[in-house]
Design goal:
alpha/beta, Quinone Oxidoreductase, Chain A, domain 1, Rossmann fold, 2 domains, seven-stranded mixed beta sheet, 11 helices, 20 strands, 25% helix
Amino acid sequence: METRACVIHAEKDLRVEAVPLGAPGEGEVLVRVGAGGICGSDLHYYQHGGFGTVRVRQPMVLGHEVAGTIEAVGAGVTALRPGDRVALNPSSPCGHCRFCLAGEQQHCTDMWFWGSAMRFPHSQGAFRERIVIKANRCEPIGEVVSLGEAACCEPLSVALHAVRQAGSIAGKRVLVTGAGPIGALVVAAARQAGAVDVVSTDLQANALEKAAAMGATATISAADGEGLARAEFLADKGWFDVAIECTGAGPVLESILPVVRPRGTIVQVGMGGNTQLPLGTLVGKELSLRGAFRFHEEFATAARLIKERRIDVTPIITGSLPLGEAVRAFEMASDRSRHSKVQILFE
């Protein structure tokens, strides 16, 4: 059997073509994919053929933010049945390395993650009309939310993990730098976790509008010249208890240090190049600087929050196109001045 899929061959060489499709085996299900969100890593493969030293060396199905409907179940699957609507977890940790055994599966030494050229042969992705997946990687999302909303479970999981890295933020003041899809979802996750003030910054006015719709109590344009260098943020050695940095830009991270209070926490989510930090400020204010990488148990939490509409992700979904217009969808997603999360529809 075959199914149509969105396949990257090289930089700007994206094709919709048939790929093999097997039947679900023991513990597996066959899912008819409904919607898939274009992520920043997908864009890197499309625009540049990869990122850093990671290059596309063979045709690879893109995509890891997907949701769909179960069409068939394999032997031994009892918790799911045909017709169930599910979000699909793109992570497949090995389960037996020292990190998996310690409950730190996001650091698995043998991780398989959909749509990644870090391995060879590449790990094929989920932008396809049908896919076979292990049943334990499916999270039911009920009948209320759309499959497009459910496809936001993966980026919301990243945001939830980032907020978790900051510790308890109930009643605290939180700064979120960068209001792309992840930054906007971090805003929502911070509000869900009880932050009393969440300030969002970005260069794009459209992105700041999305952050406000996701719960930011204030937004600041990073293009207005003043940015974070405001008297109220600098007073008493810093106004914010927590800062979550989502741009990956070194100068942005450096600009955060003066506005975080002594013994505050900075969580780095965005990944960019190398940067220099004023160590005197970091040490003198006893700041905690932590990274946040992927997620694990947060995926089930994200599915529940979306299913129950405790976090409404619809503001960040700014475009949806059918699989046959995949190239146009990727071009739309490349225009950050107009779009946040662009999705491909498979039904």
